[in-house]
Predict the structure.
Amino acid sequence: MLKIHIHQKAEDVIAYHKEHLQGAISSYYSQDGQAKTMMFGNIIEKLELKDVPLNTETFEALIKGNHPITGKKLNPREKDNARAGFE
């Protein structure tokens, strides 16, 4: 059964990422101790992030709505019912 959970806060997405994707569980998805991660899509090219590595700092900046290089807010509007991510 598929269950989709909506994370309302960036901190919740970051905590989930740290717990499930950076720890021992991530070894299932890794090769030689390194999980291969990448960003792709039109938005990555538009934000000029094509060659930027997807590391913890980049991921957290994007989840918080900030450009990982410039620090500029990507969405100037902050809503109370915004969704930070899905799992």
